[in-house]
Amino acid sequence: MPISKKVVTFTCHQYRLAVDSNFVARLGTATKKTKYITRNGLSVGLYDIGGAEQKVVELFDESEVGTTSSVIIIRTGKGEDTLAIRACQIENFGSESNSQAVPVYEDEISPIFRKAFTSSGLIYFLLDPKAIETICPDAINREEDKSTNEQTASEKLPIKLNSKHWLPYSLSILSAQKRSGQLQLIARSSEATISFTSGYPTYAAYEVDFGLTALLNIASSQDWVSYKWHPMETDASPNISEPLEHILREVRDGKTLCKK
Amino acid sequence: MQKVIVSHQTLRPDLGIQIGQQLFTCPGDAISEVIRISEWTPAPASPTYTLGMVEHNGQIYTVIDIQKIEESEYSEGPAISATIADNSYIGLIINHAAYHPIVLIGEKAVSFTYGQTHEWAQVELPSALKKREGAPDLVYQSAV
After folding, report:
1. N or C: which terminus of chain A has fewer CB atoms within 10 Å of its end residue's CB?
2. Of A188, A189, A173, which Cα lies nearest the Cα of A251?
3. How far, in Å, are B61, B98, B112, B125 from residue B133 at the CA level?
4. A159-172: b or e for each residue (b if 16 or more CB lie within 10 Å)?
5. Res A199 pLDDT > 70
6. Distance CA B54, CA A152 (A)
7. Do B60 and A110 touch (CB under 8 A)?
8. Of A102, A106, A110, which has the smallest distance from its Cβ to B126's Cβ?
9. ipTM beyond cut 0.85
10. Which residues on adjacent β-strands are paired with residue B80?
């Protein structure tokens, strides 16, 4: 006799999905504040959930800034950390007792939807939150980050980068600060958010190369508010890699950086 | 919602499907059923050769458009989604211990003379569809 699991079912884009209710901390609504693209094809937006800024994973389609969506707040394996998933519509609580492996996935997003089950004649794909946590750790809302971020939110790092490295791209970064686990760059009354996850130094270093694309886009756009690069885009010119590497290293090590 | 209607055809090892100008089959005892499929459930983030999932007799099957696995080799015929006007498809259920449960989708079921397929070309299935080595070959040839 197969063991029955309680699940929360929801729709997302054209798909019917479910998550084990044991993982679910609560359900709610959230309003999108900004958006950016993160690694491994997953989109993560900054949402307002109950007055607090939280990261929300958008599995398939990105919503517009300012719109409200249903969200499923999922517990992760570490303390009070959570993972928020945007849903088009949360259906109800159900049960599944005969989930079967879905063998067709080979790409890097595959661990998220490895199992499927039927309920009331419909096929649902069982979402694995641990897989999201593994392949996209910066999607996690970390409890320990809150105090760190609050502490550093008003602490602007004295970074000045009007160096020759940036001039070919008309980029002048006036200051930078860590905000919600991200590195926020301030330049010419605009701001950019660049991926930087505290506690993951190798992760940050890994993204140095991919950050070049972001910097190029930052430099070429006058109206950006928040931008995050896609890790697979690596066609940026290499001669601005060193400044970004300095930024990430210095922020990571808690030091300051001044360049002329 | 998926809707599956079983055609109750006699099971034969020399049964196959036709898509465009291509015939596909799997010799031996790997073919368990031929079913008619009118709808399937789309699978998130799946490869292009996967059309979705269907449930049949309590088992979830992955619906495969075999033309798309090696599209360049089977480029003589149009894509399956463009060839069947009434949105009704024939599914060839491959149910063998060496394969994960899959359904190959086609326009119609066809039969061959026993032993006719031994000189057909082999289809190289993605490794994700195989449970282990030793699966009977899926084979194809151009329709006469």
Report:
1. N
2. A173
3. 20, 7, 26, 12
4. bebebebbeebebe
5. no
6. 51
7. no
8. A106
9. no
10. none
